[in-house]
Specification:
Layout lengths: L37 H6 L5 E6 L4 E3 L7 E7 L2 E6 L5 E7 L4 E2 L13 E4 L3 E7 H10 L1 H29 L1
Antiparallel strand pairs: 1-8, 2-7, 3-6, 3-8, 4-5, 4-7
Helix pairs in contact: 2-3
């Protein structure tokens, strides 16, 4: 018996997206993603973000806990406090909607430097450190929002320290 050889003159590679589906229609083109919106990013879960509802007096994290996320306060109020070695509590800040906290993890802090407690029923977005680093790197609009927030808070803190030093000085 003689073998029959077949030769292909050219290899045919499939072309994705140009062949109609079984209904005779071309596949739908992907819609272009619109410009990045920081508020939309903070309003949606996924990509390392979760939104939690914290009841009044709920402990969000404690001084000395592992610092692994940045938090964004959507509704309610949160108290940041520190405990001295003598057991005295000092209130560092009362946060309002639109405030970030826990950002120390971004600069290498391994432990939380304060305790965060919900003063009211609060809606809080928890952003994993890796997700926060990624969005800061990739999305300049979000980076601008975050840096503006940090600078404004730094100015408020300095103003408060200047006033208190005038009172005690």
């Amino acid at each position: 018996m003689k073998k029959i050889r077949t030769r292909l003159s050219a290899k045919i590679a499939p072309t994705v997206g140009l062949i109609p589906d079984r209904n005779g229609k071309k596949p739908a083109a992907k819609q272009p993603v619109g410009p990045f919106n920081p508020q939309t990013y903070l309003a949606t879960n996924g990509q390392g973000k979760t939104t939690v509802q914290a009841p009044q007096k709920h402990l969000i994290f404690s001084q000395g806990d592992a610092a692994t996320a940045v938090f964004y306060l959507k509704t309610g109020r949160v108290k940041l406090s520190v405990l001295s070695p003598q057991g005295k509590e000092a209130i560092v800040a009362i946060l309002s909607p639109g405030d970030f906290f826990g950002e120390g993890c971004l600069v290498g802090q391994r432990l939380c430097m304060a305790t965060a407690t919900a003063l009211d029923t609060s809606k809080i977005v928890r952003i994993d450190k890796a997700a926060m680093v990624q969005v800061l790197r990739d999305e300049t609009d979000f980076a601008k929002l975050f840096v503006s927030y940090l600078l404004a808070r730094n100015m408020r803190t300095q103003r408060g320290l200047s006033r208190s030093s005038l009172q005690f000085g």
